[in-house]
Design the sequence.
């Protein structure tokens, strides 16, 4: 995916999935697959999910824009139910995340490794904010902050529209993805359907890294 | 997780439980008063036979079968019994005390945390029931801990208490699904799973659990499993009169029960029939395993001994002549401590 360069655009404005720059950005449709039950990190989860549908969301459209200093992804998918309310013990939230490699050797399918982490930009409907996560293997993810990733989701007419954004570069010792205009990297996406009790490793994902290049050519404004 | 060096445990003598819920309330007032915890009863007491809380939990699966995790499900708030809201304002402060009666507001509940209290089973004149108090079993093989994909549950090395680390918990609730005793709750405000903490802040100060210390019936013994001077080792290992509940769930609970004796049955002529147990053996076996019959025989034997004027150490322990002897050294007075909220 070649990410257009929307110069002079405030990343906060891009959190609105209806913002003008998104209208002129062509999305890519990505087929999603459920995570394999055999890769779930605990026996109880494998026992609970054997024979059940994992990954209720089967396709997603992804658009992306960068402002020269920040990168925003706009995810959209069909979901007949808006699951934001977690009042009952059996209610789970809809959620989505963009995954980026923190190192050239990072593997998406295993959610990174201690020596080659991955960096997730995560949004969950009940909090409707971003979460900055480092993955160092299946079942080994940790939140490093809840400020740097900006995210907002709107559900209407049976569809989620979610924008997830972050600054290209972060001043931190944590193994986050540091992005550069013009350089080639990869991305993956994941979606959790709360109505299907999806949480943790029970999710739909896009598979191996897909190419991501932040275009160096500035778009004309408007 | 390191090796558990010692294990704290509890023995509850079901022959002494009067179902007063003082344990339940002492726990509630100490630990589950915050928003999101309204429906939680880390300690509960239900009537057996009965469906309890969450409703019909014994049939929900979970734990291990043949050593492998056994599928289950998360009970709903309604099944737990939820937290009913009452019209206190109207009755107590609305000037309508003589007309309005206390009732549940809104949708009328179909289950509660103690809905089938005192129903029991059997036909007159041979009806029977007993009370079963329950807390987290702080299992040796905790299904919750093994189910969590985030290593958010730990079993403490020093005392085997099983705790949920709320900083690591992301509210996935695989633990609630896996626990066969259904003693883990979902806090929808904090968005974490919560459960009995075996009163570890009290234990660390030498004070027994609130449920145990507050019990008017002297039902609950506390202490280390391996403390040969304490009540747990004596009741579980030396005299073998305390058994885990549903050991077939495979989690190796560290709460043990002295099973309930009951009066004999009446026969068709209304005569006492000493040969027929009031509580069917098969029912007790279904709860406590086949050894329960040996335990009941031991208890009856000890009672016969004392009737003949002999001493019985095991009955002396169960009677708990000295209240403090029940707490395996955790007998410090909590009022003597300046508690700080951290």
Sequence:
């Amino acid at each position: 995916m070649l990410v257009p360069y929307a110069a002079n655009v405030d990343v906060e404005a891009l959190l609105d999935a209806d913002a003008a720059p998104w209208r002129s950005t062509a999305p890519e449709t990505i087929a999603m697959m459920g995570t394999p039950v055999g890769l779930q990190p605990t026996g109880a989860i494998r026992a609970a999910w054997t024979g059940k549908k994992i990954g209720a969301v089967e396709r997603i459209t992804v658009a992306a824009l960068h402002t020269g200093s920040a990168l925003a992804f706009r995810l959209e998918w069909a979901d007949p139910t808006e699951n934001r309310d977690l009042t009952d013990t059996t209610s789970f939230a809809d959620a989505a995340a963009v995954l980026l490699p923190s190192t050239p050797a990072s593997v998406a399918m295993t959610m990174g490794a201690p020596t080659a982490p991955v960096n997730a930009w995560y949004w969950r409907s009940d909090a409707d904010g971003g979460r900055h996560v480092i993955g160092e293997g299946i079942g080994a993810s940790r939140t490093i902050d809840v400020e740097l990733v900006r995210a907002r989701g709107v559900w209407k007419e049976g569809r989620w529209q979610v924008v997830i954004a972050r600054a290209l570069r972060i001043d931190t010792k944590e193994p986050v993805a540091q992005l550069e205009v013009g350089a080639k990297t990869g991305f993956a996406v994941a979606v959790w359907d709360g109505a299907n009790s999806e949480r943790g490793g029970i999710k739909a994902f896009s598979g191996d890294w897909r190419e991501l290049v932040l275009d160096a050519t500035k778009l004309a404004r408007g | 997780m390191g090796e558990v060096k010692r294990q704290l445990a509890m023995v509850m003598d079901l022959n002494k439980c009067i179902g007063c819920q003082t344990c339940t309330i002492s726990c509630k007032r100490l630990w589950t008063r915050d928003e999101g915890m309204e429906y939680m009863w880390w300690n509960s007491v239900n009537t057996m036979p009965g469906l309890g809380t969450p409703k019909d939990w014994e049939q929900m699966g979970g734990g291990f079968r043949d050593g492998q995790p056994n599928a289950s499900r998360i009970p709903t708030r309604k099944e737990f019994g939820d937290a009913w809201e009452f019209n206190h304002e109207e009755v107590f402060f609305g000037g309508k005390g003589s007309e309005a009666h206390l009732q549940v507001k809104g949708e009328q509940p179909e289950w509660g945390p103690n809905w089938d209290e005192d129903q029991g089973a059997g036909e007159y004149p041979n009806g029977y029931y007993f009370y079963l108090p329950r807390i987290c079993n702080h299992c040796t093989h905790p299904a919750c801990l093994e189910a969590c994909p985030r290593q958010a549950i730990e079993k403490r090395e020093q005392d085997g208490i099983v705790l949920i680390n709320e900083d690591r918990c992301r509210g996935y609730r695989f633990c609630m699904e896996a626990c066969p005793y259904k003693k883990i709750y979902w806090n929808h405000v904090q968005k974490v799973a919560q459960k009995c903490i075996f009163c570890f802040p009290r234990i660390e100060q030498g004070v027994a659990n609130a449920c145990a210390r507050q019990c008017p019936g002297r039902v609950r013994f506390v202490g280390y499993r391996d403390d040969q001077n304490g009540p747990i080792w004596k009741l579980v290992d030396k005299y073998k009169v305390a058994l885990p509940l549903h050991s077939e769930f495979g989690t190796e609970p560290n709460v043990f029960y002295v099973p309930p004796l009951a009066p004999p049955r009446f026969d068709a002529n209304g005569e006492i029939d000493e040969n027929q147990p009031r509580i069917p053996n098969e029912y007790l076996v279904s709860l406590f395993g086949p050894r329960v019959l040996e335990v009941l025989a031991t208890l009856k034997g000890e009672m016969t001994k004392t009737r003949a004027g002999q001493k019985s150490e095991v009955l002396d322990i169960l009677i708990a002549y000295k209240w403090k002897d029940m707490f395996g050294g955790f007998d410090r007075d909590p009022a003597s401590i300046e508690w700080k909220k951290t």
Q: What stands out?
A: Residues 8-85+111-336 of chain B form a domain with the Alpha-Beta Plaits fold (CATH 3.30.70.20). The first strand of chain B starts at residue 8 and ends at 13.
